[in-house]
Each structure stands twice: as structure tokens, then as C-alpha cells.
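3.2 Worked example (two chains)
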Amino acid sequence: MDPEGLNIHIYPSNFLFESRIERIASCLISNRAFKAVWMLGVSSSGLPKREVRPSGVVLHRIGIATAQHSTFRKIFAFLVFYLATYRAIGRKSVSCVNAHSLSVLPLALSLKLVKRCIVVYDTHELETETQSSTGARRQLAKLIERFCIKKVDKVFCVSDLISDWYEREYFISRPTTILNSASFGPLQCNDYLRKHFNLSNEKKIFVYVGLFAADRGIEQLLQIFEDDEGFDGVIVFIGFGSLDVSIRNSASYGIRVFIHAPVYEDRLGEILSSADFGVCMVVPTCLSYDFCMPNKLLQYLAAGLPVVVSPCQSLNVFVTAHSVGVVASTLSLTDLRAAVVGILELDGSRLRQRAREVGLQLSWERQQSTLIDEYKKYIE
């Protein structure tokens, strides 16, 4: 470790919802891996330029805002962000730079040359294999990543399948997987959701946490809970997004379909523990989705919720290996309905116990232990 050095985490966002980066940065400063830890993000209207998090991590929002601007403006803003990064760092001694996206990886490597620091590439997904990465854009991204990744000192990924992919694709040492796990605390069994929505004890509560967007299986879930009268299940959607209106327009809204406003992570576990099952429906429209390991899945387990998941490779392998729920055979409405109904026929008490066990095994407390061990190998 280098307790006298500065660690910088770079990501082109306003840092309102970057829980993974916040956890990693907080872990590093609390374990005294570095004297100071910064997060460098993009300036955003109405947000302070500088914030000191409770952990002691300092957030700097730099450059110019890019929302609602033309492509040219966004490119210009990104170049300004690069220059603003150098200006923010100035002559400070830097020990480690973490690039949290491919777009800032060349910037991190340029800092390695100037500051003689190490560079960590912490990928949040398979950026070159997303829906938006196609054609010439994908080829350019893969070319940049192939060149840059062999010059970094360490690579972290969010799932084992993504780590395996990087090892095969670029012929590098296998990256270390650091899951987007939830912190593990006492199980706060309660009736919050039943009381909040006036639900009887006979109703089985399925909960969906996340963005209300396409390719999340929301449309299919609405059909299941609208059409099927063969089980006493209700579903609560926690979050926000473009499909909010579709959910509220459901024929069963207020009866078997409900919406709960987004909640902060420190309260989410308590609310989840008042449900019976978690739902994680990722439609594998690209390789990045197929290999994903959503943090919502791990949040469900930490709260003791067995899960129903879509048949993405990563979700299928994980749920089957850990015996924590049911995997839909296909994405057809029939098979998704069978999975939702089928989990009700299993031993719920045993499943909840198993979910908690796995939640503990993969908790953030265990993940950060692995993280610190890896840093010890690279920083004296």
C-alpha cells in the first residue's frame, strides 16, 4: 500500500448513482491504502463542484455539462473533461488512477506516463459488446481496448463470465471479479410492504428493483400479474423510468401491481426483507447483458429473498449453482409465468435461508477483502 499517495477514480458521470465506485473508493480510504482518494466526475447543473463524502472521499465535478447537447458538443465537452482532469490534479503526487470506463482509459494511461503511477481498469460491463456499440464504433472501441488493456496494471470485472471473456479475448491474465454486492447486515424481518399497500398475509409479494426500462422483462411481468389468477401473487416495482406510465396503466394496478418510489440503499434491505421473492429479468439482447451480474440480484439475496431470473448465461449459471431460486427456461410468456408460479411450489423457508447464506458468502464485506488483497500486490 501507499498511505502517502493519492488515488483518483475517473468516470464521466455526475456521481449521483455510482454506488460501485463509491464503495470501492470508500473501501480504499477506510483501509488506509492511500492518503487521499478522489472521484473525478462531470460537472452538472445544480450540483456542487466539490463534495466531501462521509467516508472522506472527495468528489470533484469538472469540465462542462453535456446533457441535451449535440454530438459535437458532447465530444467537445469530453475533451474539456480530459484537460480539466490534468488541471484538477496539477502537481499532486498520484499513486494510482482507476479508469471506470473505456472512454477514460486512454486518459488514465496518459497520467501513468506523466505521474509514474499505476493504472487500474475497473470495467462495469462489456462496453464493446453493448447494444449501442455496433459497426465501426464497436471496432474502434475494441481496437482501443485491445491496445490499452495490456498497459494497465490490474483489471477488475463485475462477473466471472466477463472476467473469462477478457482473458480469452485479449490474452491477458484473468481479471479479478469484484461483484456489485450489497453490505450484509441483520435481517430486518417486517411487514412494511404489506402495510404500505394494505396486502393480506396470504399474498406472496414479488419485488422488482431497478430502472423501469425496456429489456428488463417489465412488459412480460405485467402480463403475468394481469392475466394469471392461478396464484396469490402481487408484484411491487421499486424505482423509476420510462415504463412508469405503462405500469400505472396496468389493468391490475393497485390490485396485484404496485409502484414504490425509489429508496436509498441504506433502507433498501429493510424494505426488501418484507417481500417474499425478488425478480431479476434481464433480456440478453447483447453479450454485455448476457454476461451481467446485476447488483439487484445480490441485494435480494442479502435480504433473504429467493429469486426468479431470466435465462441469461450469467444469471442461469449463478442461480443454478447456488440453488437460490428459479430460472425461466426461455423468455416466452409461458415459461416466464411458469417460473413465477413454480417458485411458489418450493420450500420457501429453506430457500430464504439459502438466499441469506449466499448473500453472506458474496457480501460486500467479503468482496472488499479480496479488493484490498489485490491492491497489496501492486502497491508498496
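3.2.1 Second chain
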Amino acid sequence: MTKVSRFIYWTPRILSIIMILFLAMFSLDVFDSCNSLLTCLLALFMHNLPVIILIIVLIISWKREIVGAVSFILAGLLYIFLLLIQISKGQGGWFMLLWSIQISLPAFIIGFLFYLGWRKKKKPRLRKKQKKYKQYKSQK
């Protein structure tokens, strides 16, 4: 495995883990407003729902990079879309779009790196299929 291959393989996975930990860190604010253990656990679960979904996506995309590419790009787009809905309802200002860069840009980068890894794996398979097809055609 070349240096570029290792970089393309490991970078999106490591960045995904860092991004998931970063998002999980935001759920720690639920402990400020907890009245009981049950409400605290429920609030913690609700705050960590995106984290749980991204962990599942990361586990699946560890072997199937295209899942990670599509999922992380869609997650970034969904975050921007949800912020636009909030802004249109008057619940925030235009500056909230600048905040979206903190979440959506890393998601887009991770998705693009997963896509590069998927393309890199796909090219040798395509060459083998083309070679087999040419052999098949030459036999006829």
C-alpha cells in the first residue's frame, strides 16, 4: 500500500471519529438542566442520536466507502437545510450559516475522502472486468 493509498484509506476514518467525538461533546450540556435521572438519560440520548447514527454509518463505511461518501455529504447538506429552516422561522440570524461550516465542511471533506477511497478501489476491479470482457470477446 502506497503512502497516498494509506492516506486516502485512514484520513476519512480518523476524521470521522474526531467529528463524532466533537458532536458528542455538545451533548454534555444536558447535565446543567437535569431534574431527574430519567430526564437526564432521555436528554442525553436525544442529543446523541446524530452521533449514534454517524457511528453506525462509520462502521458500515469502514468497508464500503461509497456509503460513507453519500452519508457524510448528505449529513452536511441536511445540517445546512435544517439551519435554513430555523433561520426562515426567525429563530436565528444569518450568522448561523457561518456556524454550519464547523459541522458541514468537515462532513463534506470526509465524504469526499471516502469517495476517493471508493474510486481508488473501484478502478482495479473495472480493469479486471474489462480484461475478462476482452478475453471473452476474443474467444468468440
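3.3 Remarks
Residues 3-139 form one domain.
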